[in-house]
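Limitations

Structures in this collection are predictions, not experimental determinations, and the ligand pose is part of the prediction. Treat each record accordingly. The example that follows, with pyridoxal-5'-phosphate as the small molecule, is included so readers can see exactly what is and is not provided: the inputs are given verbatim, and the output is the predicted complex.
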Amino acid sequence: MKIPLLQHIANLSPYQPGKPIKEVERELGLKNTIKLASNENPLGPSPKAVKAAKMALKEINLYPEGGGFYLCEALSKHFKVPTDWIILGNGSVELIEIAAKAFIEKGLNSVMSEGSFAMYKIATLAMGGEAREVKMKERTHDLKEMAKAVDKNTRIVMVANPNNPTGTYNPYKEIKEFVESLPESVLVIIDEAYKEYITKKDYKSAQDLIDKHPNLLVLGTFSKAYGLAGLRIGYGFGNPELLKILHKVRSPFNTSLVAQEACIAALNDTAFVKKSVDLNTKEMAFVEKELKKLKLNFTPSVGNFILIDLPISGKEFFEKLLREGVIVRPMAMSGFPNSVRVTISTRKDNKRFIAATKKVLNL
Ligand SMILES: *Cc1c(COP(=O)(O)O)cnc(C)c1O
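Predicted complex:
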């Protein structure tokens, strides 16, 4: 490579996605591999979304509606947020990148937890900013310490609630106090990718706070409970003045026509989301029970995944489990070298994961 590199790009480690099933099967000559590495929905997509996507295929000679007006309308109705307070992204990950593009450059910083979603750091470093990682308390965001880490050069604070990969959460009251404690000159991103799964009474979406806080962006996604990770749609709720800035750096047709149509149908398929959440609740209890029998430590999770601590490194466990045809996610990158994150799946898959775990750890 002869093109002179920007130093902050040269130093950047790219996001490491979960291994695709086909690649693992080809590499290791396996069949019937199961992937529990990316928190995808084990029930597949909503059939209604698939039908709508197929219909939309007939029109893919046309550019999509740039801002996704009809999907914003559907989201507006569903979540009771005005249409012009909604922005769409190519996955919610793109909205994190758009925010970093809009507000971060060399000399500025973002604040996040040490054991949180890797994209917060990557998006910040990619803009030449500094990622300030704050230690967690019992694997939960320490919001007081995060607020203390904010200085005059902080432009964004990023909080996943529930958190990935720990599966812990902060109650609404804590989030409210946190947002109120921060200066209005700092963009607060509350990333709620797993909000559909959590059943705790003291949890509520931070969307209720956007009215009072023009510096707040609340993210959601169709990738998890809606089962549409492959279509790439995420959404953000925030003050129109804030969204106006984000729209400046959003690529004009960032979400596809097929994806927009499928998401409108998925939003109306509330039965599918309920089925996904109910399955997760039941299977989470099953996996926890089995892990206890094996005397393996885990962090109790409100998401559709669980962080498990191991007697060997997460990487070694991951490699051994691969040979059993089970893909999990080692978590050294997020600061948990002896842990893996495992997606909660169907009873059949979960049993297979437990059996493979027993085998490779000689339990
Ligand atoms: C899975 C996940 C997302 C969703 O990303 P998309 O780009 O919408 O697929 C966002 N944030 C966190 C913390 C996640 O775990």
